[in-house]
């Protein structure tokens, strides 16, 4: 070997070493992309995504935070009307757990094999109330066939309800008024909203002199007052079923459903005005 070749040999060896190291890094990076986060040993589970009826806002936030403290598992909650959430799940939205404000929408998903019936349970109950703005002069009353709500609505006032054909709170309200013989006269004065919290907000802002919401909603909003509670037999039983989405493979989905039935979670829901099942 010439002196020139001897001088080049260490440089060539260094270049080969650098190329080998670069190839190894590229291979490891590619493997990392293919395996994904879940394949990394010790990596935490991704956030648990819960679809929950709008009337659970506040209560479910508190319950989710308590579960995070208890388990270390992050939880994210998406709120909307039960009908909107069920349709999103039908379109394969990536939810892990669904909490509906009535049985019908859970039945609808179960009939499509989109929830796991073995995980389904009625979690909560509620009551339906008639509310007015806190500063109004409206007084407490009893909802009967003889009551006249027109004077409380005034000439141009509207009755705020969630969508009466699809959203549970709106369906319960319509059924209640129908059973009392009041719906025919009230229907022309109704303003429908996409969910029960939107109806609550119209009353809280004074944009509607009357509204129908859940008792838990009224408790959450200091700017409204309850005028009356609907008779229990005037509308279908209010139930909040929960179930795991069948397509979910999240390892903590069932643990979260189980925890929602715990005494600690029950205390949170009672504090927010819900009835335990």
Automatic annotation (TrEMBL):
<dbReference type="InterPro" id="IPR050682">
    <property type="entry name" value="ModA/WtpA"/>
</dbReference>
<keyword id="KW-0479">Metal-binding</keyword>
<comment type="similarity">
    <text>Belongs to the bacterial solute-binding protein ModA family.</text>
</comment>
<dbReference type="InterPro" id="IPR005950">
    <property type="entry name" value="ModA"/>
</dbReference>
<keyword id="KW-0732">Signal</keyword>
<dbReference type="Pfam" id="PF13531">
    <property type="entry name" value="SBP_bac_11"/>
</dbReference>
<protein>
    <submittedName>
        <fullName>Molybdate ABC transporter substrate-binding protein</fullName>
    </submittedName>
</protein>
């Amino acid at each position: 070997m010439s002196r020139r070749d001897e001088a080049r040999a260490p440089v060539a060896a260094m270049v080969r070493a650098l190329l080998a190291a670069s190839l190894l890094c590229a291979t490891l990076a590619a493997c990392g992309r293919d395996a994904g986060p879940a394949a990394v040993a010790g990596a935490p589970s991704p956030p648990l995504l819960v679809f929950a009826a709008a009337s659970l806002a506040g209560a479910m936030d508190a319950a989710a935070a308590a579960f995070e403290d208890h388990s270390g598992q992050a939880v994210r909650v998406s709120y909307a009307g039960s009908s909107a959430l069920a349709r999103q799940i039908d379109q394969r939205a990536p939810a892990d757990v669904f909490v509906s404000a009535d049985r019908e929408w859970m039945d609808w998903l179960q009939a499509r094999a989109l929830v796991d019936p073995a995980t389904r349970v009625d979690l909560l109950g509620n009551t339906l109330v008639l509310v007015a703005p806190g500063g109004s002069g409206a007084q407490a009353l009893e909802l009967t066939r003889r009551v006249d709500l027109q004077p409380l609505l005034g000439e141009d006032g509207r009755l705020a309800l969630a969508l009466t054909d699809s959203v549970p709170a709106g369906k319960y309200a319509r059924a209640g008024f129908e059973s009392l013989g009041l719906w025919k006269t009230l229907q022309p004065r109704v303003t429908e909203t996409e969910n029960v919290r939107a109806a609550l907000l119209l009353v809280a802002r004074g944009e509607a002199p009357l509204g129908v919401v859940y008792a838990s909603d009224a408790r959450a909003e200091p700017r409204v007052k309850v005028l009356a509670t609907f008779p229990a037999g005037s509308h279908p039983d209010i139930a909040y079923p929960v179930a795991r989405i069948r397509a979910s493979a999240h390892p903590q989905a069932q643990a979260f459903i189980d925890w929602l039935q715990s005494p600690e979670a029950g205390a949170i829901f009672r504090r927010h005005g819900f009835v335990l099942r």
